[in-house]
């Protein structure tokens, strides 16, 4: 393990992250918000700390190994979560504890959207903007950004990219050079963000809300600048914009690139994961609309309201964004639990969505179907295909391994949360909302996580990190084999 090289990379990335505290300073100054001073102090603290750790190892430039890449990614998200909490903790207006500050920071960076804040409408603008900025940076991954724009790192980018990028298949590159691939992903990300901002503004938001919600929408984060989230605007046009861009952000960004480069929408239709992604959403919407309309205790609910609410909440929860226009936890019957379960699937691999990813569930379904067929035809040789191409068996086995580990970890987290005194409904949804990087849950965490005790909040911070890094990236450094030479 090249610890000095790792120290150099982490230090440089920390210095880069300190620059992200400057935009909230300008926002605070513009809106005459005294809390902007906490960002000034945080900027100098993080930048100086990064410089102190970088200076002694500034000349340690070597090619990274894969093990180094995994350790850098895990350490950076841990360090970044702690450093990102500094402005929250130092804010005199917010008066947040260390636990709450770290929880809010990690929730933002992992694009989870779970919050401990209860009065967003009266929260300083600089804090609101910073929360959204954290989600936007975490959406595509700060490390991918660093690989794209920081050749001064002087290290191999592929190791960082493979360790950071979500999804079961991490070796596919859109361009021959990894730096160009990372840049390309960020160009697409930036175009979507700018487009979403403009559309929100045209739909009726002011520029501040439009920028903040665009950050959160494209990152599939779910943080809002208002307590009632998107429901604060009570606008069908704004909701339509949100639905469109949540859908786009939940699609593999590599698929976006291929379709836009070829100017051919058939690229989407020919992709197995995209078809499954859209198919699942349509099925959930068709289930939700009639059940919500017929079973809702709200007698004033019209069929158009049922359609509007169902489409928005299904897309928001299924893509693990977490925006709300209504309190879906109070929906009748099985609908709230159905939506929570949909977050386990999440969006496509290579997107900013959370969950286990559509491609994994598609492979699990195909594998299950194959085993049933083998019972009827034991001698048949059947390959599992994606986009009409057979997949290697090790990929299918890897998906089963991921699923097994995910179920075990979910069970452990849920039992530990319940052990601390939390009821079963709240514990189940809290773990699902954090491990899937969703945000809102059911029960006591339907609105926010303020009521959870410190032990549960730290445990859920770990769940958010594991969900963002797709479990194995974090677990791999805990194995003895990882540390052997």
Task: Describe, in plain words, how this protein is organized in 3D.
This protein is mostly helical and 485 residues long. The protein has 23 helices and two strands. α8 packs across α10. The chain is globular and about 65 Å long.
Give the secondary structure arrangement, pairings included:
Elements: H1 3-18, H2 22-30, H3 36-54, H4 66-83, H5 86-90, H6 98-109, H7 125-140, H8 142-149, H9 157-164, H10 178-203, H11 207-218, H12 236-249, H13 253-262, H14 266-269, H15 272-295, H16 303-318, H17 335-345, H18 358-376, E1 385-386, E2 389-390, H19 393-419, H20 424-435, H21 454-468, H22 472-475, H23 480-483
Antiparallel strand pairs: 1-2
Question: Which key phrases capture this entry?
Answer:
single chain; 485 residues; mainly alpha; 2 strands
| Overall strand count | 2
The percent range for strand residues is under 5%
Average pLDDT over all residues = 88
Shape: globular
Q: Structural class, judged by helices and strands?
A: mainly alpha
Outline the low-pLDDT stretches: none
Major sheet strand order: 1-2
Largest sheet entry: 2 strands, antiparallel
Helix content: 55-70%
From the N-terminal CA to the C-terminal CA, the straight-line distance is 8 Å
What Rg do the Cα atoms give? 22 Å
Number of DSSP helical runs: 23
Oligomer: single chain
Order of helices and strands: HHHHHHHHHHHHHHHHHHEEHHHHH
């Amino acid at each position: 393990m090249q610890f000095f090289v790792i120290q150099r990379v982490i230090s440089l990335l920390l210095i880069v992250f300190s620059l992200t505290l400057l935009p909230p300073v300008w926002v605070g100054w513009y809106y005459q918000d005294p809390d902007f001073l906490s960002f000034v102090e945080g900027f100098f603290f993080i930048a100086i700390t990064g410089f102190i750790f970088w200076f002694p190892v500034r000349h340690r430039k070597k090619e990274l190994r894969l093990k180094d890449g995994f350790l850098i990614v895990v350490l950076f998200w841990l360090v970044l979560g702690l450093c990102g909490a500094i402005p929250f903790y130092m804010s005199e207006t917010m008066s947040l504890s260390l636990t709450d500050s770290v929880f809010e920071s990690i929730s933002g960076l992992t694009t989870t959207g779970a919050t401990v804040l209860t009065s967003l409408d009266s929260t300083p603008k600089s804090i609101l903007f910073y929360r959204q900025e954290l989600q936007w940076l975490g959406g595509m991954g700060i490390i991918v950004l660093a690989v794209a724009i920081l050749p001064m790192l002087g290290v191999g980018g592929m190791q960082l990219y493979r360790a950071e990028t979500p999804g079961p298949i991490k070796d596919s590159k859109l361009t021959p050079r990894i730096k160009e691939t990372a840049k390309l992903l960020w160009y697409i990300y930036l175009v979507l963000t700018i487009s979403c901002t403009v559309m929100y503004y045209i739909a009726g938001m002011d520029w501040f809300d439009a920028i903040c919600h665009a950050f959160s929408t494209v990152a599939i984060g779910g943080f809002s600048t208002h307590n009632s989230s998107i429901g604060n605007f009570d606008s069908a046009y704004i909701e339509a914009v949100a639905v469109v861009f949540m859908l786009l952000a939940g699609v593999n960004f590599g698929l976006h690139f291929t379709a836009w480069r070829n100017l051919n929408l058939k690229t989407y239709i020919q992709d197995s994961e995209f078809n499954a992604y859209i198919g699942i959403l349509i099925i959930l919407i068709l289930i939700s609309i009639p059940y919500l309309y017929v079973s809702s205790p709200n007698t004033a609910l019209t069929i158009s309201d049922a359609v509007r609410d169902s489409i928005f909440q299904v897309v928001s929860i299924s893509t693990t964004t977490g925006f709300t226009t209504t309190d879906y936890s109070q929906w009748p019957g099985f609908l709230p639990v159905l939506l929570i379960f949909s977050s386990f699937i999440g969006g496509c691999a290579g997107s900013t969505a959370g969950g286990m990813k559509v491609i994994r569930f598609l492979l699990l379904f195909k594998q299950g179907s194959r085993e049933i067929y083998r019972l009827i035809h034991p001698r048949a040789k059947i390959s599992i295909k994606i986009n009409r191409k057979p997949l290697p068996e090790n990929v299918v086995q890897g998906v089963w391994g991921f699923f097994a580990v995910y179920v075990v970890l979910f069970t452990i987290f849920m039992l530990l949360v319940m052990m601390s005194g939390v009821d079963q409904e709240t514990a189940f949804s809290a773990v699902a909302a954090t491990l899937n990087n969703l945000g809102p849950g059911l029960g006591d965490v339907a609105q926010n996580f303020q009521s959870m005790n410190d032990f549960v909040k730290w445990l859920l911070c770990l769940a958010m990190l594991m969900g963002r890094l797709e479990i194995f990236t974090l677990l791999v450094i805990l194995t003895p084999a990882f540390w052997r030479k």
